[in-house]
Structures are given as structure tokens and as C-alpha cells.
Amino acid sequence: MVRDLALPLAMAVAAGLVGCFAVMRRMTLASDAISHVALPGIGVALALQLNPLLGGLAALLLGTLLIWALEHKTRVPTEALIGVVFSAALAVGSMLTSGEELIEALFGGGGRLSGVETLLGLIGSALVIGFTLRARSRLVIALVSPDLARTAGVDVAAVNLLYLLAFALTVALGLRYLGVLLMGSLVIIPAATAKHLATGLTAMLLIAVSIAVLSTLAGTLLGSALHQDAGPVTIAVAALFFFVSLARRRSV
């Protein structure tokens, strides 16, 4: 049980942190869409009889680099580029996967991870968490005023690229647990909830992480008790937190 929970909880911490900056960057809908970019990679990996998580990660990283390069060259908004890449990826991925494989790719629940997969996932989670915490000041200043960030010596393009890569890695960490359809929700819902409740960045990060972790833990335990996949239950619990936060905000 401890090993089964280690990676989902570490992934939840990463999702809570990354999601806060996605909400502040107004990438709410785009963040959910970017997770779908993993689908064609999963399809190719399955066709080649490789680990589907590796295929999903490769597709996410390539898609992220493509989005960043197009944004840097064309100045088209990030959310528009993500929408186009997402649509193409979903179409190609649907053609490459079918039946039960497609259901697992979309909703997760593909069985237990091996010890090596868990270890690599924990390392990936640590990288995302470390980057987000260390770069949070640069991320905020680049978001508020790119010109001011450049004056302060911040490489805005590099910070944006690293953030998008951290986002892609976070999505990849949750593919087996939540699938491409639900992983974006765990990134966005806790952060959106924290935005209603927090009065500052530190509080927002702490609340988002707490909600993501509690939702993941509750989803795992309730899913097991109700004989349901943990992914959908996790997102249902996270959504419950969000609606409760709305009610609390109206009552204050």
C-alpha cells in the first residue's frame, strides 16, 4: 500500500504546485487540453510493444517543445497553440489506439507500477517540485511583467519553456493513475480552489497541494472500498472541494 500510494501522492504535490501557476497564467482550459497530447505517443508505444508511459512522456515533451517554439516564433497565444496541437494529437491518438487500450489511456487504471517505474516517477516528481519552488519568484514576475522580468535579468523564454516542460512531466506522472482525460483536472481543480481561499502565493501553493493530496488519498481509498477506479473518484472529490470553497466564499 505504501509503495502504491507513494507515486500518486508525490504526483499530487507536483500537480498542486504546477497548477497554481497554470491558473495564474490563465491556462485553465489549455492545461486540460495539453494532457491529451500524450495519446498518440501511447498509441505508438503500444504498437511497438513498448511501455506506454514512455510513449506518453515522449509525446508530451515533443508537443511542449513544439508549442513553445511556435509561440516564440509566431507570438500566437499559448492557449491557442495548445488547442491546435491538442486537437491534432487527439485525432492521431484515437486512430492509433482502440478498445480497452484506448479506455486505459483515457481514464488510467492500467495496473500496478513496477519498482523501477515508481522510482523514476518519484525522481520526476522531485524535479518538478524542486523547480516550481525554486523558480516561483521568476515565474510570478515573468507572468506579471515580462519587460520588468527581463530588466531584472530573468530569461523569460527559458522560464516559460522550463515551466511548460515541468507541466508536461507532471501530466506524464499521472497518466497511469488518471489517464489523459483526467490528469489535467487534478492540475487545475485544486489550484482553482486555492485561488478562492488563499490571500497570497504561499497560502495558495499550500492549499492547492493539500487539496490535491487529500483528493488523491481519498480517491484511492474510496475507489478501493467502492470497487471503482481511483481516477474518477479522485477528480470527484477534488470537484467537491471546489464547490465547497465557492459556498464558503459566498458566506464570508
What do these coordinates show?
The protein starts with a helix and ends with a helix. 85% of the residues lie in helices and 0% in strands. The protein has a single domain (2-251), classed as ABC transporter involved in vitamin B12 uptake, BtuC, CATH 1.10.3470. Helix 1 (2-24) packs parallel to helix 7 (115-134), helix 3 runs antiparallel to helix 6 (99-107) and helix 4 runs antiparallel to helix 10 (156-173). The chain is an all-alpha fold and 252 residues long. It has helices spanning 2-24, 28-34, 38-47, 52-74, 78-96, 99-107, 115-134, 136-144, 146-151, 156-173, 175-197, 201-226, 230-251. It is globular.
Number of helices: 13
Q: Which structural category do the helix and sheet elements fall into?
A: mainly alpha
Q: Name the CATH superfamily assignment.
A: ABC transporter involved in vitamin B12 uptake, BtuC
Quote the distance from N terminus to C terminus: 40 Å
How does the major sheet shape up?
A: none
Radius of gyration (CA) equals 18 Å
Mean pLDDT: 82
CATH topology: ABC transporter involved in vitamin B12 uptake, BtuC
* Beta-strand percentage range: under 5%
The CATH level-2 architecture is identified as Orthogonal Bundle
Query: How many domains in all?
Result: 1
**Spatial shape:** globular
- The H/E string reads HHHHHHHHHHHHH
User: What percentage of residues falls in helices of 4 or more residues?
Assistant: over 70%
CATH class: Mainly Alpha
| Low-pLDDT segments, ≥5 res | none
Please report the total strand number as a whole number: 0
